[in-house]
Amino acid sequence: MNFKRFGRPAIIAIVAGLALSSCAANEGATPASDDAAASTLSGTINGAGASSMGAAQEAWRAGFQTANPDVTVNYDPTGSGAGREAFIAGGTDFAGSDSFMSTDELAGTFAACAPDSKAVDLPVYISPIAVIFNVEGLTELNIDADTLAKIFAGTITSWDDAAIAALNPDATLPATPITAVHRSDDSGTTKNFSDYLFQTAPDVWTEKASDTFPFSSGDGAQGTSGVVSAVTNGVGTIGYADASQAGSLSTAKLMVGSDFVAYTPEAAAEVVAGSPLVADRAADDLALNLNRKTTNPAEYPLVLVSYAIVCNTYADAAQGELVKAYIEYIASAEGQIVAKDAAGVAPLSSELEANVADVLATVK
Amino acid sequence: MTTAAATTIKARQRPGDRIFSSATVIAGSVILAMLAAVAIFLLIESLPAFVADPSEFSGDVTNFWSYVGPLVFGTVYSAILALIMAVPVAIGIALFISHFAPRKLAQGLGYLIDLLAAVPSVVFGLWGITVLAPLVQPFYTTLVEWFGWFLPLSGPVSGTGRTILTVSVVLAVMILPIITAICREIFLQTPLLHEEAALALGATRWEMIRMAVLPFGLPGIISASMLGLGRALGETMAVAMVLSPSPEVFFQLLTSQNSNTIAANIALNFPEAHGVGVNILLATGLMLFIVTLLVNMLARVVINSRKAFSGAN
Hints:
Largest interface: A-B, 37 and 33 residues
Radius of gyration of chain B: 24 Å
Order of helices and strands of chain A: HEHEHEHEEHHEHEHEEEEHEHHH
Distance between the termini of chain A: 72 Å
Strand content of chain B: under 5%
Helix content of chain A: 40-55%
CATH architecture of chain B: Orthogonal Bundle
CATH superfamily of chain B: MetI-like
CATH superfamily of the largest domain in chain A: Periplasmic binding protein-like II
Oligomer: heterodimer
Structural class of chain A: alpha/beta
Number of helices of chain A: 12
Strand order of the largest sheet of chain B: 1-2
Radius of gyration of chain A: 25 Å
Number of domains of chain B: 1
CATH topology of the largest domain in chain A: D-Maltodextrin-Binding Protein, domain 2
CATH topology of chain B: MetI-like fold
CATH class of chain B: Mainly Alpha
Shape of chain B: flat
Strand content of chain A: 15-25%
Number of strands of chain A: 12
CATH architecture of the largest domain in chain A: 3-Layer(aba) Sandwich
């Protein structure tokens, strides 16, 4: 009795619900199926390399696979060096790398590429590195490369040091000791931070850029999240981290020319756009000589640029088409916006975007 | 007659006996085979590290031994500090549970301690960086101000509290459950006659524990400590998250520069390692293997030499 009385309306409701919702699902899916019809690509793309662009690659994979349902993209964030090695050995179709290929690597052969063709570096990922700090009573900090280098090399040890006071005349600096937090694991962020200081403050920062923090001073923390948490929880701390991860921490302004520049995605993209290509390389290799010493206050020179490394001509033409389509998507305005939302990267300037597209057009 | 006496009498073997005895033999040999497999893998993979080009090492280090030296030191240093803190507390808890607490409380406390052993090390790591380190930092500052003349406590003090002492505290908490659980079981096994005899002679409870329980339990305490030490030596995640490492030997407990441990160093650098770098890290793993082996052998020797004086065999 009870079932009959309530069962029938309930069944009607369920059926109606299913019918209506499946209707809605069909409508929603229509544009996607149009895309699928347009896309004739199918296959698997394997990439490996820089962990810095791991989050962005996740977003790109998702976006690309939605548009091309028959394509599977894999990206293994094993690190730049391992990524380049795997690509050279032919284990992957492209590599992500925080540094462009060395001349030694370029002189060798690439197993995935057609004989006599080389691989090229394409800048596809720009991430500003923020200098974050946590000092009681201090919300703004102006700093120049020389002072920053001295702080991280351990020669400036107190927040009320004359060098910092000279740059921040309006701030009341406490006599707290400085704890400079760096990455304890090998990382491209450290390499770019180090490279910036090595180029702009060579008297203080005497060590060449490497993935490992070069000085045995300051506090080490694991990963970007480790640095951010150490700076947040510590007393009188300063550190460097991908700008997208800085959270609510205060970030310092860097001296560029005679102005102090806060990081913005635009300023980061600007310095990359203003950087010349590395000389003596193939015309289609877009390896950048980052202009860290810029004096243009519209540019923020502390950035990390990651490259996608692809073959000029693939040994397997079908595979080449796939990789080309994927990297074209990554370097497109749409792909860059996707990565901006997912990983806080600075989108490529339109000029650089066009250059990358030109090179990709020749990839086979 | 004489020939009959010489032949040994063999027990009848039923299928169950054969199956069970071969099962134990297999279990026993599998563990040996696994140990051998790990050792051989480490040995083979480490070989390139010993002849690696100086440029393969980061920083100023030029050969494998000067690279691994500070790591071995850091590993042993942090583990021993943890042991110094954990063992007295563990013995105290175990004695409380076995001899002082009311039965109901003792059981509950026992479960609680065992629960601590089930907490994953990454949780201890998070607790270390977000709770413990900021909590002890002001205390470290005072310690350096007052006792800075004493080398292990000398400054400059770390601004984040993420020092080797903090790591040792985290490690101590992590090894506490193992040591406590074993000590508790050992203390409960003290022959009641020994305890009653001590009490009958007019001993107070503390004197009884000193005369009967502790001497009886000593080998057990040592084995328990060695098990704890083994875990502290090999702990990876918590150390990697909490410690602020530097590639040198440091005796200071409260500064930002601390010798890293082998396991944490592998965890930190393996993700980006390639080529010979991987071999170097695996070679440090081999060193950890050897250090652990030595520690365990030492513990065996100590326990064996003490065996004669206690009732435990």
